[in-house]
Design goal:
The complex is a heterodimer of chains A (324) and B (257). With 324 residues, chain A is an alpha/beta fold. Chain A has helices spanning 44-51, 73-79, 95-105, 110-123, 139-151, 169-185, 197-203, 221-227, 243-250, 272-285, 300-308, 312-323; strands at residues 3-14, 18-29, 33-37, 59-64, 67-68, 80-83, 157-161, 189-194, 206-211, 214-219, 231-237, 255-261, 264-269, 290-296. Chain A folds into 2 domains: 3-225, P-loop containing nucleotide triphosphate hydrolases (Rossmann fold, 3-Layer(aba) Sandwich), CATH 3.40.50.300; 229-297, Alpha-Beta Plaits (2-Layer Sandwich). Classes of the chains: A alpha/beta (324), B mainly alpha (257).
Chain lengths: 324, 257
């Protein structure tokens, strides 16, 4: 199968000196769901904007559906659907009116357009709400309309930029089912960005973790987790600690890859259960008080921790601080 | 053909916003009436200034008010794009193969239609107040055309500012900054021979004044065809250049993303 998305060495800086993309390269096989996972500000959305021809990279090349995004953006636009982070529907227009305008923008018109709009509204469960203004829709309904609009012209590649952000848990699960159905029924390539581990784990057949504008690791969700043999031991400490607590743990033979994030120590162990007594003894000897100890099988969060070197929620905090 | 259909979809969106919001529609329709009554009352004495020979005050003022209203009404057109950028509408549209010119032209046509409608209202009211349209129906149609062309030019400029600045405040600033000077540096409210010489000189380059002169000549007096055709030509050229500028602004906006 040829690659539906091929990006090479994409770089993009925003003035004065924010590096959004720092040599990002990726390849997505046609007909698969590919997840881009990373904290806010990692470069996921910028990647989507470049691939969807909204934004131009400072350097690097990218081809989507075999077409060069920089040399021939118009033909890329015909081949892709974009569901952005924000709702794309005109709020004062009805769902149907939005769909019709969208169709005309893609050069579809007349009876063909009318039929497609009707079928598509039906398929996304929007028939009843079709003639109501979009601003009266719930978040989940607006998202379904966004996707219906993105699919109206039957694109070869669909970009979903954080499709479930802002949805309540019920609507999120419903959206996941919808995306799974899409992937099952249509021969479409889907690139989905998310900062939800669970979402990437469930939907993507392959995923890449993006951090600071580069891809730090790529693989199947299962493969990435298997690569991390053993368990994660997570120790909640009573007080914020300096690196001393970490070095105390590093001397314990049973564990490796120790990291300290605020008040939480993370360590990896081949056999976590057997390592816990030694871990606690080492901390005790060092005069560090532990509040709780958790043992977990590897999650994508651990994968992220391993490759991006910090916990997910913490990376989020960092970017928020930078933004503020 | 596709371009025309896409443009129409954009125009249709504006029309729907107008007719679905009764308060907005009400304000759009009452504004011309208030302007004509207020300015009419305020400037009634203008006809008593020595040297004034513009006919009755209502004959003189109506084209000036039509033109002022065209600028102030169309000047806010860019607000729609600022909202579309803040929401996700603009991203969705720019990721589609839609002709960029249609995004601008659709809103410009809508702005011109609203101004045409407002002009019809002003003309009807001024007739009731005793205006003599010596130019007849043809003259009134020319006045509407002039107002629509001026509105089109300012709608495009407003769109360009909106897409380049992307901030509400920038557009509000630009419109309020430009509206009164352009009006006062014209013969909208005062006869040409009665304004200071420097204003007369500046007014020659002021699109608002082109519209005032053409509108007044077409509707209120025996038409000076040379003047009317010349001014309409200038306004049409300005509308076209502004539209090209606004269309190019999308590319510049995308480069900044």
């Amino acid at each position: 199968m040829p690659a539906a998305i091929e990006a090479s060495e994409l770089r993009k800086t925003y003035p004065p000196d924010v590096t959004a993309l720092d040599g990002l390269s990726m390849s997505v096989e046609a007909g698969t769901i590919f997840g881009l996972l990373g904290p806010n500000g990692a470069g996921k959305s910028t990647t989507v904007r470049v691939l969807a021809t909204l934004s131009r990279p400072d350097s690097g090349t990218a081809r989507v559906a075999g077409i060069d995004v920089i040399a021939d953006p118009l033909h890329v636009r015909r081949a892709i659907g974009l569901v952005g982070q924000k709702h794309g529907g005109a709020p004062e227009a009805t769902g149907r009116e939005n769909m019709v305008a969208q169709g005309e923008f893609y050069g579809i018109s007349g009876r063909e357009l009318k039929q497609r709009v009707g079928r598509s509204l039906e398929r996304f469960g929007l028939t009843e709400a079709a003639d109501r203004p979009v601003k009266t829709y719930s978040g989940g309904m607006q998202r379904r309309l966004d996707i219906a609009m993105g699919l109206l012209h039957r694109p070869a590649v669909l970009f979903l930029d954080e499709p479930t952000t802002g949805l309540d848990p019920e609507a999120r699960v419903e959206m996941w089912r919808e995306i799974e159905r899409l992937a099952g029924e249509e021969l479409m390539t889907i690139l989905i960005t998310t900062h939800h581990m669970e979402e990437a784990d469930r939907l993507a057949s392959r995923l890449a973790i993006v951090d600071r504008g580069r891809i730090v690791v790529e693989g199947t969700p299962a493969g990435l987790k298997t690569d991390l043999e053993g368990d994660t031991i997570q120790v909640e400490l009573a007080d914020r600690q300096d690196a001393g607590a970490r070095s105390a743990l590093e001397r314990v033979a049973e564990v490796d890859e120790v990291s300290l994030v605020e008040r939480t120590l993370y360590a990896r162990a081949r056999d976590g259960g057997a390592a816990i007594p030694a871990v606690l003894a080492a901390l005790d000897a060092h005069g560090v008080k532990a509040v709780s100890v958790t043992l977990a099988r590897p999650s994508l969060d651990d994968v992220y921790l391993r490759y991006a070197g910090r916990a997910f929620h913490n990376a989020d905090n960092r970017t928020e601080e930078v933004a503020a | 053909m596709t371009a025309a259909r896409q443009t129409w979809q954009v125009t249709l969106r504006g029309i729907r916003v107008l007719i679905r919001q009764p308060a907005y529609l009400g304000m759009t329709l009452t504004q011309p009436i208030i302007w004509l009554l207020l300015f009419g009352a305020l400037f009634k004495a203008v006809t008593r200034i020595p040297g004034f020979h513009g006919g009755t005050y209502i004959d003189f003022l109506t084209p000036g008010i039509v033109v002022m209203l065209a600028v102030s009404s169309a000047g806010w057109t860019g607000m729609g794009f600022i909202e579309d950028i803040a929401g996700g509408v603009m991203d969705r549209e720019l990721a589609s193969p839609v002709w960029r010119g249609a995004l601008n032209a659709g809103t410009v046509i809508y702005a011109a239609l609203v101004v045409a409608l407002q002009t019809v209202l002003i003309v009807a009211l001024s007739l009731a107040l005793g205006a003599n349209y010596i130019g007849g129906v043809g003259g009134v149609l020319l006045l509407i055309l002039v107002a629509a062309l001026l509105a089109a030019a300012f709608a495009s400029l407003s769109n360009a500012v909106a897409v380049l600045a992307r901030q509400r405040e920038a557009l509000i600033g630009a419109v309020t900054f430009v509206l009164l000077p352009l009006t006062f540096l014209s013969t909208a409210l005062m006869q040409q021979s009665l304004v200071p010489g420097w204003i007369r000189s500046v007014a020659r380059f002021n699109p608002v004044n082109w519209a005032v002169e053409a509108g007044r000549s077409a509707a209120m007096s025996h038409i000076d065809w040379g003047l009317v055709a010349g001014r309409i030509g200038l306004l049409a050229a300005l509308a076209l250049i502004s539209a090209m500028l606004a269309t190019r602004a999308f590319a510049s906006y995308q480069r900044s993303l």
